[in-house]
Amino acid sequence: MIIPRPAEYTARSGEFVLGPALNLAAGPGAERPADLLAAYLGAGRPRTGAGPAVALRLDDGAHDHPHGYDLLVTPEQVTLTAPSEAGLFNGVQTLRQLLPAQTLSADPAVPADAWRWPACHVRDAPRLAWRGVMLDVARHFMPIEFLYRLADEIALHKINILHLHLTDDQGWRVEIDGLPRLTEIGSTRTASMVGRAGSTVFDGVPHSGYYTRRELADLVEYAAARGVTIVPEIGMPSHTRAALAAYPELGNHPETALPVWTSWGISEDILAVHDEALDFCQHVLSDVMTLFPSRNIHIGGDECRTVQWEDNADARRRIEQEGLPNVSELLGWFLSQMHGYLAEHRRRAVCWNDAVGVGNLDPGVVATAWLKPEHAAEAIARGHQVIVAPHEHTYLDYRQTSHPAEPPSADDRVLTLAEAYSFDPLPTDLSALGVAALTDASGGPGVLGTQAQLWTESAPTTEVVRHLLYPRLCALAEGAWSDERRDPADFARRLQHHLLRLDALGALPAARPDGWDPGAGLSMP
């Protein structure tokens, strides 16, 4: 009943019963996964050195995949080994799912006899190195408490990347040292557009919120203790209207005061390319690096309308200084400057894939191929590592069904559970080119991974976000972790039990519309 489906699972007779105390042995380097497992097994269960043992240890020979693990449960002992801490974290989540669903609840009244594992042998490893989910907290701010819960929920699904979209035209959500107006001004808009982009209706309700440095540092630590890396996104040079509202001198028309944008869609207001704008971006990235230890920093780069550069004196001077043929090459130059700055600090830039189409972008930039499926192969051919995330299959802000109670999406697109489950992040056209999945980020061009996206123009609350996440995130998590084999009936069977886990965690919305069936189209046994 595990999601995502493990590579090898062999049932054995009997079960391991947890007593009132826990004999948990952690070898060198296994301390954090062991502490996490102990927390999942109940705060009231003291540690002891006697009785049936649960042992976690690092072992280079445990698996041939760096993030794989080997788990053996017998009635007398539980042994979890892995070649890395990441592998142990993955195994801990399997142990968590092997418990009865009710044990995932925070309810202290869980019966004592519920704490048991079935005897089994599990040998497992991820298909892709990058298994992520992106949440847009710029369009609608989400409480920090929700992000804590989300980090723990995605860990349950062996998702190891939480990509936070922290800035956009409609709001700046991260505190930056030395630039106080980014949050004093940029974190608040006076209203929000009602409906999709182009609507002329606004709600008149101010929307604001941002995360303090302390809040984000604590969240990063909490997520890391679950094997989850938080990747921040600071969009540039487009989707920067909130930053321009705070510091208009960074734009192409500094004489014009701009409010934080209240509309959805794509603003033509972008950063200038003079030294002051570049210094601003590097200042922000420098501060972000102190908060987020992630090797990867997402710098946006998408949907950059260059009309303001075409008639801007600073842009013309920059084109001449850099020997660029035309204004269209400025975007690749700008993003490569930021990637170079990050590389000096042993980090690297991630961009949305429409930025990768420019010819002068540094191949060290990781491409998130979101727009068209063929962009993944094109980016790999240019030398990039790629996160395969075409919007038709990975955008969870699209409606789950055609049910009238579904939240509206940008263009009423529907992404069903069955369609999410059928998505293969290593498609045939890539395999035909000899492109394989990368087991880590140290290699050359190839598929680094995949991720789900949830934009929040039409998701103003955590309740709506939860409705949109589940159960489709479960399906995408399986495609990121497990091999290309697809068995809808088997997945549907496992999902029925998994939804009990999510319900126990409080991860599902409080209510579903009458007649709503997210599993429509999946074969049931």
Topology, pairings included?
Elements: E1 8-17, E2 23-26, H1 31-40, E3 53-58, E4 69-73, E5 77-82, H2 85-98, E6 116-124, E7 130-136, H3 144-156, E8 161-165, E9 167-168, E10 171-172, H4 181-184, E11 188-189, E12 207-208, H5 213-224, E13 229-236, H6 241-246, H7 275-291, E14 296-300, H8 307-310, H9 313-322, H10 330-344, E15 348-352, E16 366-369, H11 374-381, E17 385-388, H12 391-394, H13 417-422, H14 428-432, E18 446-454, H15 462-469, H16 472-481, H17 488-505
Parallel strand pairs: 2-3, 3-5, 7-8, 7-18, 8-13, 13-14, 14-15, 15-16, 16-17, 17-18
Antiparallel strand pairs: 1-6, 4-5, 4-6, 9-10, 11-12
Helix pairs in contact: 1-2, 3-5, 7-10
Q: Low-confidence parts lasting 5 or more residues at pLDDT below 50?
A: none
Number of helices: 17
How big a fraction of the residues is strand? 15-25%
The N- and C-terminal alpha carbons lie at a distance of 14 Å
Level-1 CATH class name of the largest domain: Alpha Beta
Shape: globular
CATH superfamily of the largest domain: Glycosidases
CATH architecture level-2 label of the largest domain:
Alpha-Beta Barrel
Rg to the nearest angstrom? 24 Å
Helix content: 25-40%
Major sheet: arrangement of strands: 7-8-13-14-15-16-17-18
Structural class: alpha/beta
Overall mean confidence score, pLDDT: 93
Query: What is the number of E strands?
Result: 18
Query: What is the total domain count?
Result: 3
CATH topology descriptor of the largest domain: TIM Barrel
Report the sheet with the most strands, covering strand number, pairing sense and barrel closure.
Answer: 8 strands, parallel, barrel
Catalytic activity: Hydrolysis of terminal non-reducing N-acetyl-D-hexosamine residues in N-acetyl-beta-D-hexosaminides
GO cellular component, one term: membrane
Protein name: beta-N-acetylhexosaminidase
Active site: 303 (proton donor)
